[in-house]
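Shipment paperwork, digital attachment
Item: protein structure file
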Amino acid sequence: MWLAAVGRRMRLGYSWALAFHKERTLDFVMRAAVVAMVCLAGPWALWAQVPRGAPATSPAPDRNKVVITVGEQTMTAGEFADFVADLPPEYQAMAAGPGKRRLADEIVKFKVLAAEAQKRGLDSDPKMQRQLAMIREQLLAQSLLSAEQARVVDADLEKYYADHKEEFEQVKARHILVRTDGPGGEAAAKKKADDIRRTLTDANFAEMARKDSDDKGSAIAGGNLGMFQRGQMVPEFERAAFALKTGEISQPVRSDFGYHIIQVQERSSVAYEQAKPMIRARLLPQRIDALVEQLKKTMNTTLDEAFFGAAPAPAPVPAAGDK
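Attachment content:
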């Protein structure tokens, strides 16, 4: 459709802390890498090489029971269960059945390779150290984002919905489009649009849309565009449509697509339950941006503009109903 304009995360003590964070980082890296290996192999990999007649499930062992040993490293049944819980749902189901052994083999594979890399001193490589430090920072930042997301509670969503009712208005409309890139250009298009509007009524709208509209995608349906919210159409069209009363037909409205003659057929509001995901997606970036700005001031951060260039102008913030 011509109208589709989709709008728009002490030294000994210090040495111990470094070792602890390195161990945690390596654990997260192992988790991510094994998941990646399994995912690259495809879901069928967890089913491969399973003996026929193998039981689909087995009794759950004690969580403290050691079930994987690689040198001095161990993984308990509880740790394995936690690992599986971080997998995508389809892999969790497979790992709960005959794919469990295949997943364990992948974990062992990764651990022996990582242990050999450490034995060869590859973890002391400066590039590797930088990458590990970056991964650790990313994990910490993601953990904070998750914590902030949990702070956006239903009361916040309900307040936003009540305070921004206009953002959740929606209308059902139809239109007739006259493009300006045809013979005669702008002047001819404006005259045609005016002529159509003079004879246009509620009764003949669908017929004239099928005959005269240059938006062939909607013309076949009598100009019907269906239900839409703010932010889903080009601004000029949106302003006109949401200003109309139900049943009212607009004068020709100019946009980059040409001249539109619009009729609003229905008006309603998006229900709160339907709007909740949109509101959450709207509020979370606001809170994160505010937190980042606060932390930047607290930590006295600076950027060398001569080196990096000036900061770009902030982008306009879309409404909760924008797509």
